[in-house]
Recover the amino acids of this structure.
């Protein structure tokens, strides 16, 4: 399949899987190239498509008050495969959308394998896409194989940027001491599949917190290779011990903040707290929220068992760390995610410098739609920048400063403002009211983009 009627997608992660689905649903034949299990990675454990290698959370599902929740809703309206499978595999997680990771990736794999326009090929692309591939999407993610990564650097004429991303540990639920821990979401907030008591909370008093921080600082860490030492971390996913190095109270005001929680044994808010979120549908596994780490495995077991309630914790998976690679998209890509140096090739997903599962899938969604429309001779129109999809796309394709480009989650700061923003402060929309207005405008504009004929007829 090498003629102009076939779209070749390299990488079967969230972005590649979403791109394949969108293009196939639009009537285009797709070949999805996934190197696993022919070549393994340091982070993946299975050969399933769209495997989640870090958290099992797609983060907030609140479309009115949170930009990622808005992105969820926009993707649902676009017929997203990732959101459909995520909704079907959801587990309790307060106001977040979290999934049973095995059920989720299994569903994505099955649906793509069953699609009559999708062919999944298990092979590694170890160089630049062949010249007879007339339409290509590279969605190889942060763990791009060395051969292709070198081909990307050679073709773009620019060094890829890189950062470290760390994986949080997963604990067997029956090894948690519920005589010390309790279930509660912050402010008792419920969410998809949950009831307001979706997290397991392990409280620490001041002495326990101080001892824990001391242990983190003294713990033996993974040694970096020479070529890794100058690679910056993504600020939104710092290892727990790196946060501790920034100040003794950093954790207590970060992932271990106790706000919105009350210890039922004391009736008071604890000094600090470790939260664990359900990781599978059976409720047998919980991941340690915000506890990504580069501690050595033996140190993780020793130090994390200092946490009240986790003294006998059994770990299904310990934390880890791997290098993520992304391109300087504002410099290299055009507004439709095409590589300026070779426009038949698009980039999608985390390799473009978006951060997060949903953001990666969102760029895959757009690239699949763009490529399909282009191949069918239709107009390729990006979504309005007032939408979450459009704001994210605009950021990576020119909205960000190429000289300081770093990975970015979707957030309301990427959205254009309102006409009244230039007026007196008292007349400007603020806080929750502003978020609601941004979300309402986004969904209205998205519907206009998805159904232009209907809008024109009104």
């Amino acid at each position: 399949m090498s003629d102009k009627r076939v779209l070749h997608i390299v990488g079967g992660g969230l972005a590649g899987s979403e791109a394949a689905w969108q293009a196939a649903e639009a009537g285009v034949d797709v070949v999805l190239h996934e190197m696993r299990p022919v070549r393994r990675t340091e982070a993946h454990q299975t050969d399933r498509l769209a495997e989640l290698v870090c958290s099992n959370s797609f983060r907030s599902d609140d479309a009115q008050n949170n930009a990622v929740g808005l992105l969820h809703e926009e993707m649902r309206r676009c017929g997203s495969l990732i959101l459909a499978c995520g909704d079907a595999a959801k587990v309790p997680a307060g106001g977040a959308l979290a999934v049973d990771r095995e059920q989720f990736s299994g569903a994505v794999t099955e649906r793509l394998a069953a699609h009559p326009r999708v062919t999944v090929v298990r092979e590694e692309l170890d160089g630049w896409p062949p010249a007879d591939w007339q339409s290509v999407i590279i969605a190889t993610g942060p763990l791009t194989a060395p051969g292709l990564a070198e081909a990307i650097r050679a073709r773009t004429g620019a060094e890829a940027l890189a950062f470290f991303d760390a994986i949080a540990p997963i604990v067997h639920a029956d090894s948690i001491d519920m005589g010390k821990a309790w279930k509660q979401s912050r402010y008792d907030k419920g969410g998809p599949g949950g009831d307001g008591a979706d997290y397991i909370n392990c409280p620490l008093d001041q002495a326990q917190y101080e001892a824990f921080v001391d242990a983190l600082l003294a713990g033996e860490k993974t040694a970096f290779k020479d070529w890794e030492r100058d690679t910056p971390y993504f600020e939104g996913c710092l290892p727990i011990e790196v946060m501790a190095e920034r100040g003794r109270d950093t954790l207590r005001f970060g992932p271990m903040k106790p706000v919105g929680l009350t210890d039922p044994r004391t009736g008071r808010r604890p000094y600090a707290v470790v939260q664990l979120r359900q990781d599978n549908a059976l409720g047998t596994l919980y991941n340690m929220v915000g506890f990504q780490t580069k501690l050595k495995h033996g140190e993780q077991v020793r130090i994390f068992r200092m946490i009240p309630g986790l003294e006998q914790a059994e770990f299904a998976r310990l934390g880890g760390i791997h290098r993520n690679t992304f391109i300087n998209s504002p410099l290299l890509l055009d507004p439709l995610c095409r590589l300026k140096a070779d426009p038949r090739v698009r980039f999608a997903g985390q390799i473009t410098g978006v951060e997060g599962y949903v953001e990666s899938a969102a760029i895959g969604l757009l690239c699949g739609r763009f490529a399909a429309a282009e191949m069918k001779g239709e107009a390729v129109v990006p979504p309005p920048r007032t939408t979450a999809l459009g704001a994210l796309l605009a950021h990576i394709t020119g909205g960000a400063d190429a000289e300081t480009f770093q990975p970015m989650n979707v957030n309301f700061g990427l959205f254009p403002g309102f006409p009244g923003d230039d007026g007196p402060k008292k007349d400007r929309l603020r806080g929750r009211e502003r978020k609601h207005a941004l979300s309402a405008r986004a969904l209205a504009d998205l519907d206009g983009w998805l159904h232009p004929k209907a809008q024109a007829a009104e």
